[in-house]
Amino acid sequence: MAILPSLPSNQKNTRTVGRGFQSLFLILFTLLMTSGIGARLAYLQIIDGPKLRKRAESNRIRMIPKQPERGNIFDRNGKLLATTRYPRSVYLWPMAHKKPSWPVVSKRLAQILDISEEEMETKLEQAGINSASLIRIARNVNEAQITALKEYATELTDVEINTEAVRYYPQGRELAHILGYTRELTAEQLKKRKSEGYRLGDVIGQMGVEKAYEKSLRGEWGGQQVEVDGAGRPLRVLGEKQAKAGNDLHLTIDVEMQKTAEKALGNRNGAIVALNPNNGEVLAMVSHPTFDPNIFSKQKLSQKDWQTVQGEEHPLVNRALSAFPPASTFKIVTTTAGIESGKFSPNTVLQTYGSLTIGGTRFGEWNHAGFGPLGFVGALQWSSDTFFYQIGKGVGGPKLIEWTRKYGFGEKTGFEFSTEEAKGLVPDENWKRKVWKMPWTVGDSINMSIGQGALQTTPLQVAVMFSVPANGGYRVKPHLLKDNGDAKRWRDSLNMKPETIKILREGLRKVVSEGTGKALNKPTIPPTAGKSGTAEAWKGRSKQNHAWFGAYAPADKPEILIVAFAEHSGGGGGSVAAPMILEIMEDYFARKHPGKYQKQVTGDR
Fold this sequence. Notes:
36% of the residues lie in helices and 19% in strands. It is α+β, with helices and mostly antiparallel strands. The chain is elongated and about 125 Å long. The N and C termini lie far apart (137 Å).
C-alpha cells in the first residue's frame, strides 16, 4: 500500500473546496434566525401585546368588588318590608387553591366554617385562577368563627373577611309570597345571566317582587382596584368605583291589612286577595302555608330549613295565583251570559227543584229541595243550582265559554308575577276532544254554569271577576307597584247592558242582606255585596270541599274587594270564608273611619 508523503509542518494548507458553501450557509442561517426572532418579537409586541399586557396587569392588579345595596321595599304607607343588613362574609383569592399550602388551608376553613373542601374547590375553579375578584365561600359568619379565623391568620394568608350586603325581611313570614326572596345564582342561572353583568356568588330575586323587579332593585357593582405584590398582598389602592344602590319600591300593599288577612286565614291552607276594584291595586295577598324568606339569606340551608319550604303542602306555592274550581262564585258569569245572550230577559223567573235530570244525568240542588220560583236576583241570593242549570242549558256552551273568557278566565291577569301565575283552564270543545276524546255535551255546560267540571280559576282571577259588577262593568289589571300608572288606568269594558250590571249588583247585595252571606251583614262594616261558593273536591278518599267567598264594600260605592279561599276546608263558603272577610273589613273600616265603625273584639267567629 502506497504511503503519501506528509507536508512539512511549516507549509500552509491551501485547500479551498467547500469553504464558500459553508460561509453562505452560516450567513443564511443567521439571517433566518434573526428574521424569525424579529418576527416573533413583532408578533408578541404588536399582535399579542395587548393580551399579554392585560395578563400581566391581572397578575399585578386585583379588583375587590363592592356589592351594591339592593333597593328597599315599602308598603303603600311607607312601612319597611325589605331592606339590607351587613353581616360578615369570608372570601378567598382565586389562586389560593393552586398554592402548596392549599391542603392545609382548605381543611382549616372547612373545620371553622362548616363547609366542604369540595364546595370551596368548585367555587374557585368556576371563577378561574386569573379572576380579578375575590370569591365568597361563606356568609353570615359568627363571632366565634371570626375569632378562629384570626387565630390562624398566619396560616390563612389568602383569606379575607369583609362585610356584605344581605337581604333582610323585617316582617318575616307575613309577606313571603308577595316579596319572594333572593338567593345566590345557580350555575345554570349564571351561564344565562353572565352577559347581563352577573358574576359568581351574585344574588338574584328568585320569586315574588324580588324576581319581578330584579333589574330595578339590583343596582350596579362597584369596587376597589388594588395593586398587589408577587405574594398577592395589597400594596396600594389605584382607583375606586362607588357601587350604585338599587331603586326603592313602594307597593300598593297595606301591611296592616296583610297582617289581619294572615290572622283571618289562620292555619287553613288557602289564600286571601284584597284589591281596589276601581284601579286594580292589590292591598293584601296571603297564601298559606307560608315560609320565612330570611332563611334564604343564609349561605347554607339546614335540613330543618329545607323542610319548612319543601313540605308536602308546598309552602313555596302561591295559592292566590294557583287554579281551583270557582264553584258558585262563577254564577256571576252565568248570570251575565244569560242576560247578555238575549236568551233570558232580566225579569226571567224559573222554577227551581230538588234536582233536574238532563240528558239522562241527575243534577241535584245543594239544599236537595229547591227554592220555588226565582228570578236572577233571588237565584244569586240563595245560590240556586237548578236555576243556573237551566240558564247554562239555554245559553249553550259556546256563549257561556265566550263570556267566561271575557271575564278574563283562561289567561293571566297581567299581574307582575307572570312566571308564578297560573292561567287556569276554560274547557271547550277542542280541549275536551283533545284530552277526553269526547265531544262537548249539555252536561258540560250545566257543570260549568255553577263553576264545576273542568273549569279552573285562581283567587286573583276571581277577584278580577268581582271587580266587574263592583265598578260598573270593567275588568281591571291587578298590580303591586304603587306608581304603576299604566296598570291603574287599564280598564277593559265588557260592554254589558246596564240591566245586567243592575241585576248583578242587586243579587250580590241580597246574598249578604238576606241570603247565604249573612255573616257579613253586620253594623261594624258598611252595607256589603258578595257571593259564596262551595266547590266539590276530594283529598285522598275523603270529600273535603273548597270554600269561597268574594265581597266588596260599600255596596253602592265600592272601595275594597276581598276574595277568601279555603282549600279542602270542608263546610260552605258562607260559613267558612265569609267570616274571614268580615274580620278584614272590620279592621279596614275601623282604621279608615274610627268614629263611624267599631271593630268587634269578641273574636269567637
